[in-house]
Amino acid sequence: MKKISLRALATRAARCCALALALCCLAPAAHADAIEFKDARLAPRDEGYALEAEFDVELPGRLEEAVNRGVALYFSLEFDLTRPRWYWLDEKTVQLAQTYKLDYHALTRQYRLSSGLGSLYLSFPTLPDALRVLAQPKLFAVERGKLKPGETYFGNVRLRLDVRRLPKPFQAENLTNHEWNLDSGWQKFSVSPDSGAPEAAGAAGTGGAAK
Questions:
Q1: Could you tell me the pTM of the whole model?
Q2: Which range marks the domain in which residue 106 is found?
């Protein structure tokens, strides 16, 4: 039986520790460019409730370069609200989606962010400024009287890059470059309208699973 010296064992252990440390340092960088969910709630308004969500949005280098070259990026904000029922399927109270368009206008050197049909837009001097507003969408969601006092509802919200609206070459690259799959995944939060105001959610992510 071949004997292994203590020095050799120590050397191997040190190498293993160094490799593990290197992998730990690399792991966060591999997921740094993404859409990360932070918070969501329904805020009371005179006419009902508005969805107020918060994400952290960062673009991979290739997508940032594409925007600076004039390629428009489309993001989809999706939201639904359900009421659990023990005797039947959950009641879907609200279901809606909003599209946001992000592009760069070379003539004015401004980044533009628009929603819906895009006739109105906001202008920003830098891309981080535009992403900061995109990451905090506010959208009227529920009409007054549609929520029943005393009931608990569950909202699901998701922000994602619509890769189907990228130019064809980028769609082809997306098949092999998964860092372009910018998607917060479906995130759940609770709403209790009995107090007159929705309950702020300590949301728990559902990891992008289908609803």
A1: 0.73
A2: 31-205
